[in-house]
Amino acid sequence: MNDKNDKILICGTNWLGDSIISMPAVQLFKKSNPTCHISILVKPALKDIWAMHSAIDEVLTFAPDKKGTFAVASILRDESFVKAYIFPNSFRSALIPYVAQIKQRYGMSGKWRSMMLTDIVKDDSSMQNHQQYEYMQILGVESEVAPTPELIVNPAVIDSIKARILLDDNQKYAAIIPGAARGDSKRWPDEYFAEVGCYFIDRGLKLLVLGSSGERALCQKVVDSCGSAALNLAGETSLQEFAAVLSLSAITVCNDSGGMHLAAAVGSKVVAIFGLTDPDKTGPLGMDSLIVAADGVDVSRDIPRSSERAATCLRSIKPARVIEEISSKFKSVVSI
Q: Are residues 126 and 171 in the same domain?
């Protein structure tokens, strides 16, 4: 238990999916320390996702380069933080609170950073397989039943995006996220996504295809195969608008990606396609999720960005199988 009104710094993860996976730990920490002021330090691209999380009192950002590292450390030195909890395993993430002279610094060892930590957290992740438990270990919290991530989508953002892309309250929508920041080794073929998209359209749903600006061409391939009932929103939404669109979607089909975790966190029913990555380790958090995984493969937490073995594994998961599992688990969504 921390002292009343302690200022706590959490050095957050570098990816959208990992950020959402870490949220149950942050929620448990806040519940155990309700009077603490919790600031989280993240890259600018992740500011909006943490602004949607009620356990965080302040979101701080830094430029991910040498100049930004020392500049933010100088600012933090004057902020009276008593403890820092470091989620990433990188050297830089431990360097910032060390240079900032925060008295207690908790994190896992490795990457030549042990000397910068005052409290080295033992990695007991083998006791609990999912990655969310690593963050609970760092924060020193535990729970027999981990809470689901709590993201609050701003109603004004929902109203704004509905008006901008002309969403109809009387229409049911399905979302498809065919990309993955990790690369081709996590991407189910676009033509497979299109086949599932056409299945939704045949059952009266309209299709919203989402991704980053760099994935617009990929998303357009899905849209071109699905026709006028599909809309390409890749690169046209902010992160909060992305979350809003997913919250308005009855179901989301996606790869093992940050979008998968975001969809689950805002309440969309999730259909997640897993190839070589391990759903027990990085699967979506929440009750309304369907994982469709490749059969008979040796999964791994880390795979190359481009891997023919991974691509072959993903191609082995045929659209017909995914459609069959969707029609079984989410019958209320796809019933005509």
A: no
